[in-house]
Amino acid sequence: MRFSDDAIVITGGSGGMGEAMARRLLADGARVALVDVNEEALNSALARLGVESSQAVGLVADTTNEESMKRAMSEVAATFGSATGLITAAGIRQTAALFHEIDLDRWDLINKVNVMGTLVAIRVCREQLISTKGSVVTVASVTAGGARWAQSSYAVSKASVSHLTKQVALELSPHGVRVNCLCPGVTNTPMIAEAAKTDGPGVLEAKVNGSLEQFRPGIPLGRLAEPEEQAAAAAFLLSSDASFITGIDLYVDGGVSMIG
């Protein structure tokens, strides 16, 4: 129960990874606020979590809209007290397209949601986190550390999240607030299932086993990650077990990052 009565906010909380993080934190005693732009998805996630409203709430907000997020954070404070933790799991993917072919409006949207949405969430939560000397976990990707075929916008956005994490970690360090970046490898979530539909049925096999164009070495551990494995890593970074860790990228990727 290392998060006993802590109030932790998860943006993108209705997604596969966000929901797994909520379940892990609830099991460790936290009270959790799931933030998502999709109210129906939020309600479904809360129903699957199966906990009382005193332990978990869903808040509809757009992470790219500062006023919307301010309202959500005010609700968190009114319901649970000041937040002690924040996970920025909200994000969107890129359908495979070469850099010279990607629609520029889509490029802007991916970077707006993935990068600016992360920035806004931390900005809005800043005062509460300072008051509790809390912790932040941003969510980037294994693509933050290297190029991926036909994923220019997504890869650039996640590299930006990684560097933004370091910048914010430095600026919040005088207040005792830690900020770290989780970089998941390919994880068995609905987002990946959707990628398999739009980018071709062989995309998951290529990710695991390797392919010349996209994922040369494949995944050394030979499988996709499970959402619960990413949740365990996020819980570690949020917890006092990581009390002297800030500004790092933690790759949970089955070994992909060690071989490029």
Automatic annotation (TrEMBL):
<comment type="similarity">
    <text>Belongs to the short-chain dehydrogenases/reductases (SDR) family.</text>
</comment>
<protein>
    <submittedName>
        <fullName>NAD(P)-dependent short chain dehydrogenase</fullName>
    </submittedName>
</protein>
<dbReference type="GO" id="GO:0016491">
    <property type="term" value="F:oxidoreductase activity"/>
</dbReference>
<dbReference type="Pfam" id="PF13561">
    <property type="entry name" value="adh_short_C2"/>
</dbReference>
<dbReference type="InterPro" id="IPR020904">
    <property type="entry name" value="Sc_DH/Rdtase_CS"/>
</dbReference>
<dbReference type="InterPro" id="IPR002347">
    <property type="entry name" value="SDR_fam"/>
</dbReference>
<keyword id="KW-0560">Oxidoreductase</keyword>
<dbReference type="InterPro" id="IPR036291">
    <property type="entry name" value="NAD(P)-bd_dom_sf"/>
</dbReference>
